[in-house]
Write a structure and sequence with these properties.
11 helices, 3-stranded antiparallel β-sheet, DNA-binding, 5-stranded antiparallel β-sheet, Beta-Lactamase, alpha+beta
Length: 277
């Protein structure tokens, strides 16, 4: 049985909330629901019911009913321990926004900066449905370069830094759907090929804020990737830098991480993430 939908009057009668400052002409239930979405987006991870209620100045019961409605529509997803994260429906909004802002054009100067600073191949990728797609690329400036371009990556979200940087912030049911559709193909002996191992890897990506591909998609190639966020906080794409393993010293990887993470944060800010946070 699905959640029982209550009216605003029922919610307030059952559980009076602390006063929330409404914008002029705002509809209270809509305003509250949007506040909850903004709080979850800005958290960058799962958020507990009680924390959301406190930050939104809502009674926990009211907060629970609003979240149940949002979950029913796919805008939030339940996580273990009465916690919540953004749902897969937010990705559809993000992709619609991308079609309007032209992500490759907006990302171009950031790709160029990473390429200049590291000298390495740089990729911009998005998840289109369940396919990983490279939508822009800058070639390495070295004589010896890697070619991890657009070919063969549609099934490689689990094996690439760009893919893992996107998957890590999706709800687990959405990850399950993608894996069911695309599988966990072994591109190299280092590729992750089991779902529990992938989930553990994605948790690590969430903690660190960036993803690594250590010869998982191509032998002798190491990549660093980080997510791009939009106004809602949803991950709408990712950027990675790739280097041959013989150049992958700790010093060079530190430079690559700094450049990729810094660029994706600035691009996310440009897309409105900082203003929403």
């Amino acid at each position: 049985m699905g959640p029982v939908l209550l009216s605003d009057a029922d919610l307030d009668k059952a559980a009076p909330a602390a006063p929330v400052a409404l914008r002029p002409t705002a509809i209270q239930s809509v305003d509250r629901a949007l506040t909850l979405l903004e709080l979850i987006a800005s958290a960058g991870g799962d958020v507990g019911l009680n924390e959301l209620a406190a930050r939104a100045e809502l009674n926990p019961s009211t907060c629970h009913h609003l979240l149940a409605t949002l979950a029913q529509r796919g805008y939030v997803a339940k996580a273990p321990g009465r916690r919540y994260r953004l749902g897969s429906r937010m990705l559809a909004f993000s992709q619609a926004c991308l079609r309007q802002v032209d992500l490759p054009q907006r990302a171009a100067p950031y790709l160029e900066k990473i390429n200049e600073a590291t000298g390495e191949t740089v990729h911009l990728a998005i998840l289109q449905g369940d396919e990983l797609m490279t939508v822009a690329k800058r070639d390495a400036r070295h004589a010896v370069r890697v070619d991890a371009g657009t070919v063969g990556k549609s099934d490689a979200a689990h094996a690439t830094a760009t893919g893992k940087a996107i998957l890590a912030w999706l709800p687990e049911p959405e990850i399950e759907r993608i894996v069911a559709a695309r599988g966990l193909r072994a591109f190299t002996p280092n590729t992750i090929t089991t779902f529990p191992t992938l989930i553990e890897e994605l948790r690590s990506v969430r903690r660190e804020g960036f993803a690594m591909d250590r010869e998982e998609f191509q032998p002798f190639v190491v990549c660093v990737g980080a997510p791009i966020r939009d106004l809602t906080g949803a991950v709408v794409g990712s950027i990675s830098a790739s280097t041959p393993v013989f150049r992958a010293t700790e010093e060079h990887l530190t430079l690559m991480r700094a450049e990729v993470v810094g660029a994706t944060r600035l691009l996310s800010d440009e897309l409105g993430h900082a203003a929403a946070a």
